[in-house]
Design the sequence.
């Protein structure tokens, strides 16, 4: 039986306002992306008429975060914040770990009082800190509520697959046991892509009908704009050059070997590959690209400077190492789509974004340097084709990935959960 998408089952709510309790350590005005995402989802549920409470920590992502009241009503969402004392910031692993424990303990105690006085129908847990769904599972049982677990990254699988951190066997086994308890306790699990869903179903034993795919929206969400010729001139990019831009972290999940080979093959052609200086493997890739005149790096950009940088490019480059599509989805692709820029993805063809590119004809997925160079050469000879891919990019974004589209799916999901 096909698992129905929540958006297909939307029905109007009636009677008492549906209560939703959301658990996540970070919420606005904390500056982490998780805080922004959770705050936006919570407000969308409140705007849809639900009675939403967020149980978070006081701003603590960085030592210099601004203060916020322990209780407030923000945009229709009731926020209850837990005191973090000296466990604020992320200067060290121990401080971060201590902050996790303090929040988990506080969420357990305060959460019990919340579900006793105002029991929710849904307890929604995001993944900060990683073990918060265990707390959510217990609170949901006490309230007789449905538990929804939203997963953005699958751990410890990512750490093991990338060899980024050594984890002793007992820790891995304990972590996997806790993950199994969290997944078993959720009536619904939300992931970002089909690859992640397949992993949970095939290797974690989660029933397919309990796993729903709801992607991220673009952050930032841009509008189509004419090419920024002034910035291109400042960056030393020729008017006739094809600028291929990578804006994301150069981390352990992002292999650029096909790009290195492709750049060599395109030596002497009017093509420039540009990378934002960010990520733990930045120095490694700098060395790999050394000597290539058609490759350059620019400082990390934010705000309007970032918007202009995207507007200056012709193609958005989105890499993902083979196998990593099972653990994460590169959300930077959605920003390029929103800006009406075609995608050049470098990943397994079965990855979510690679299949999106093929299905919507908004760019190309290259598994090798030859494929990458051939596609760019073809578009240099036929620039009108690139414009067609660009239009398909924005059409695809409007249909599937705008903030409104994604938030509507969260609202629909909660409506479905109430009716079960």
Sequence:
């Amino acid at each position: 039986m096909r698992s129905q998408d929540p958006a297909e089952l939307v029905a109007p709510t009636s009677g008492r306002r549906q209560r939703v309790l959301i658990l996540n350590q970070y919420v606005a005005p904390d500056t982490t992306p998780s805080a922004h995402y959770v705050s936006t989802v919570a407000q969308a549920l409140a705007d849809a008429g639900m009675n939403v409470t967020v149980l978070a920590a006081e701003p603590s992502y960085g030592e210099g975060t601004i203060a916020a009241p322990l209780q407030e009503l923000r945009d229709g969402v009731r926020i209850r914040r837990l005191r973090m004392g000296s466990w604020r910031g992320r200067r060290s692993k121990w401080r971060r770990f201590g902050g996790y424990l303090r929040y988990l303990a506080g969420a357990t105690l305060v959460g019990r009082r919340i579900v006793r006085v105002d029991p929710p129908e849904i307890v929604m847990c995001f993944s900060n800190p990683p073990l918060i769904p265990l707390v959510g599972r217990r609170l949901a049982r006490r309230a007789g509520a449905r538990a929804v677990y939203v997963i953005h990254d699958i751990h410890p699988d990512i750490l093991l697959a990338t060899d980024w951190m050594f984890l002793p066997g007992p820790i891995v086994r304990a972590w996997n046991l806790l993950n199994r308890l969290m997944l078993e306790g959720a009536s619904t699990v939300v992931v970002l892509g089909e690859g992640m869903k397949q992993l949970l179903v095939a290797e974690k034993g989660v029933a397919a009908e309990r796993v729903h795919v709801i992607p991220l929206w673009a952050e930032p969400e841009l509008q189509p704009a004419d090419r920024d010729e002034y910035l291109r001139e400042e960056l030393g990019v020729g008017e006739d050059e094809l600028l291929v831009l990578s804006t994301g972290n150069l981390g352990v999940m992002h292999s650029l070997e096909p790009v290195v080979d492709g750049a060599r093959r395109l030596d002497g052609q009017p093509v420039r590959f540009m990378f934002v200086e960010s990520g733990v493997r930045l120095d490694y890739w700098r060395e790999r690209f050394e000597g290539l005149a058609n490759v350059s790096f620019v400082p990390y950009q934010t705000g309007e400077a970032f918007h202009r940088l995207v507007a200056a490019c012709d193609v958005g480059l989105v890499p993902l190492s083979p196998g990593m599509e099972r653990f994460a989805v590169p959300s930077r692709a959605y920003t390029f789509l929103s800006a009406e820029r075609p995608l050049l993805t470098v990943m397994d063809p079965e990855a979510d974004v690679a299949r999106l590119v093929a299905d919507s004809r908004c760019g190309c997925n290259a598994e090798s340097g030859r494929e990458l160079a051939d596609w760019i050469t073809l578009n240099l000879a036929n620039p009108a084709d690139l414009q067609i891919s660009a239009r398909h990019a924005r059409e695809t974004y409007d249909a599937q990935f705008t903030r409104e589209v994604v938030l509507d799916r969260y609202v629909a999901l909660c409506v479905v959960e109430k009716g079960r």
